[in-house]
Specification:
Subcellular location: Cytoplasm
Number of helices: 9
Largest sheet: 5 strands, parallel
CATH architecture: 3-Layer(aba) Sandwich
Main location: cytoplasm
InterPro entries: Cytidylate_kin, Cytidylate_kinase_dom, P-loop_NTPase
Number of domains: 1
Radius of gyration: 16 Å
Organism: Microcella humidisoli
Bound molecules: cytidine-5'-diphosphate
Strand order of the largest sheet: 2-6-1-7-8
Pfam family, one: Cytidylate_kin
CATH topology: Rossmann fold
Distance between the termini: 15 Å
Helix content: 40-55%
Amino acid sequence: MSDIVVAVDGPAGSGKSSVSREAARRLGFAYLDTGAAYRALAWHCLDEGVDVEDATEVAERVAAFDYAIGMQPDHYFVRVGGEDITPDIREPRVTAVVSAVARVPEVRAGLTALFRRLIAEASEPGVIVEGRDITTVVAPDAAVRVLLTASPEARMARRSAELSAVSAEATAQQLASRDAQDSRVVDFMNAADGVTTLDSTDLDFEHTVQALIDIVRAGA
Ligand code: CDP
Ligand code: CDP
């Protein structure tokens, strides 16, 4: 088990994945992207023709979910049933249904148990785990807990820059709609007691990575 667990939550586009991964790389820590697991299950449901609005059907898929994720920041991959689906989980069709899959209680319970097992098995000196409910549900006892925020305008600008082919307006709408759906299930907009808020609105990527590393060094 890693000595230092760092929990990072935040809304879409706050920089959780990219910043956590780079901070983990520099610290020599493992890195766990929990959103990737929710996306992989959503991808699997689409692949199997499961009606994602049918909670019972989705819940049935969790027990036998054959999922593997790379936790080395430099060797990141996602596999389902042995098939590498790393790029596929970012497809818009997956993004469009992931919130429906993530709100099923059996999905949350099953994946939370999986994340705790992966955290316990990590052999690096520390692990950075990022998602929506890591500071509150998955690892509330983590040595370091951070809520990474950014203004809606900054988050939308970052996402639009990544998806240049898609109109800024469509990106903004999708982001707002997903955050609204996800917020009904877990609160990742307000820091829970003892959680440090890192506002990246006016920070570039490099300064955000540095700020997270400083928080880890101060808190661990
Ligand atoms: O990177 P982005 O913010 O777009 O999303 P993500 O971290 O890949 O998460 C994808 C989806 O998984 C979210 O929209 C949530 O529906 C769900 N999720 C969750 O419910 N709990 C987590 N700990 C992580 C992700
Ligand atoms: O995982 P999450 O949805 O929170 O965000 P991300 O996918 O890690 O970051 C979205 C984009 O914002 C990436 O291209 C980052 O490089 C960028 N970013 C930025 O421009 N400035 C920051 N301070 C943090 C991230």
